[in-house]
Amino acid sequence: MAEELVRAERMEEEHKKAGVDTDIGTTVAKSMTTDDRQVLRGEREIEEPAPFTAPEDLYAELLRAIRKYHPSEDFSLIRKAYEVADRQHAGQKRRSGEPYIIHPICVAIILADLEMDKETIAAALLHDVVEDTGMELQEVEREFGPDVALLVDGVTKLTRLDYDRDKIEMQAENLRKMFVAMAKDIRVVIIKLADRLHNLRTLQYQTREKQIEKARETLDIYSPIADRLGISKVKIELDDLSLKYLQPDVYYDLAEKIALKKDAREEFIAGIVDEVSDHMKAAGIKAQVVGRVKHFFSIYKKMVNQQKTLDQIYDLFAVRILVDNVKDCYAALGVIHELYKPIPGRFKDYIAMPKPNMYQSLHTTLIGKGGTPFEIQIRTWEMHKIAEYGIAAHWKYKESGSGKKADTSEDEKMSWLRQVLEWQRDADDSKEFLSMVKSDFNLFTDEVFCFTPTGDVKHLPAGSTPIDFAYAIHSAVGNKMVGARVNGKLVPIDYKIQNGDQIAIITSQNSKGPSRDWLLLVKSTQAKNKINSWFKTEKKEDNIIRGRELLEKYCKQKALSYPELTKPEYMEGVLRRYALKDWNAVLASVGHGGLKESQVIGKLDETKRKLDKKNITDADILKVNTIAAGDVTSQTVKKDSKGGIVVKGIHDVAVRYAHCCNPVPGDEIVGFVTRGRGITVHRTDCINMMNLPEDERSRLIDAEWQAPENDKTAATYSTEIKIYCHNRIGLAVDVSRIFTEANIDITSINMKTAKNGTATLVLTFDIHGKDELKKLTDKIRNVDGVMDIGRTAG
Hints:
Radius of gyration: 31 Å
Structural class: alpha+beta
Distance between the termini: 50 Å
């Protein structure tokens, strides 16, 4: 059997040991061991991976999974996609040591489990070829058509972003791209969810830092998306896996405590299932009754939100009743309420009022024998399918693969995406957009539902006020709001909305608009965004004037010329960098605080320098350049013994290379004027340069490498790398052998080992440039036990 299914069965069996039901195949819960905890805490080395299944066997398993639901017998598109992906990923391996092609096949198997169409399966097999191999998107389109190419492009990360952007901005830009692609074809994000799920299933092979990073991003972004699309089959596993790596002690503590009373719990649930089944038969209702313990993350969420211990959580147990139609749902509810005593206030009718992701079910919490509370969910088989598969269950695909049309319920389910795209247009920069998304997607936020005067249901975050409600209706209603009535009574605008409230907003054309104080009252991201948008629009002229004044003042402080920096060719770099339509938008953003003056002027100055480099004339080179910085006088032109550096148009300036970051040819560099010692050259990503105080930045000077006249006689440069690895006998010998074969002399080597069995090697050596360094590190990465390599950066 395929590797993924073997692992799934093993996990499911371990989960059952803890007494936790799993209807999603690969739920991650398992009985706790000391080794498990040590791995997650970084106290013990990760075990060697088990032998992997051959890709051809996995591919055969994929075809069997597709044949279970797909009526077609023509799988030539999928076969071709597999062959191309296998060829493109040839020689590549994952951290687990298995061939890389196993990953896209396993992603495709997850999608086949969701019963996706052939184009989606093909795109899953190809989803990494553009990002990780030499294959171009145009080639994908030529071979597989525009639909598959669109899906592949949508899940391909923006790996070619400017290196001056930090990690948060890169994450936000990738999310922007994904949301735009989702708007064109929802299958993009379904592939992305399957990709993330398989990456989490194999997260044990990553470093602890990477485990935390990926698990946090999953809870912040991907799990909420799965929830909003209604794909609980994926969401539950994403939640539990993320909890396992973010809070290992909590995760295994839950597993331990739930496993303690396994026999008593199974007896309790079995008794309820048998009793309910008998009463359903007696009432003439055809029903299937199943019992389960709730999933770990949902239990943990209740503990956090309600500030309770596990023993204080009401509904650890849930019984699900599946019937044929809606009429039987309510009939079954009547039977249940006759049989058990319901807990007041714990009944929810999601059939009459579906959740925003179109989830439907009746929920009621009851008191069982012995006073033990438990929950019963009643739904039809169709509702159950929607609850498990979400939008993947009802998306209407043609055989041609068009995934762009959906029925009305899917349009409603995607309303949140339109809201996200609005935020994207309104956000001043990527970080603001990412903050909005994370705030709105917060999995720990409960919801309340309330009604408009006409009976429409609105879902809002718990703690919302009438202001949130007004902006949920329309921005014009919120902007003109002067008061509110709840259930017919006037209430203050900071009133906390309760479940079932009927709210009427009082508006006035004489209203001057929202108050900035409202930003402190509202809970929903939508309301905050619309209030901020009003201030940006209504006060735009004032913000433009203020923004210009702030920029001019900043330039004056830095001895820069504002008119010189604000030429159209320099402005273009800022507009592209912050995705703004014109210069007035930049000024307005600075005026209301969306952008900092240093961000704008820094980008203008950077663009100016880059363009000026390209336009250097002979006259510029011959011109004497006086560097004014403290007590440093004009530098003497002098041949440097280590190779050529061009500083502000002057060749062969006497320079020294910073030992904190050890720049080598090929690195982006910057000069720093030191008092009495000339110019020190740093890498632009040097920590010391990135954290340089504002008042010291005037001493930075543009610098670049000058190509050597003869590569054979090119100078060498000292550099330092850190190798992070699993410690073993012979590791240092294997690494040093690579240097010997490359005829590179190691000038210093230092090795530190940790209690968890990991080691860090710090090596200093001489190198000709960055290209040679890359070839060297690529070879070192293939040494058994090496996890990661980094350069010192200050």
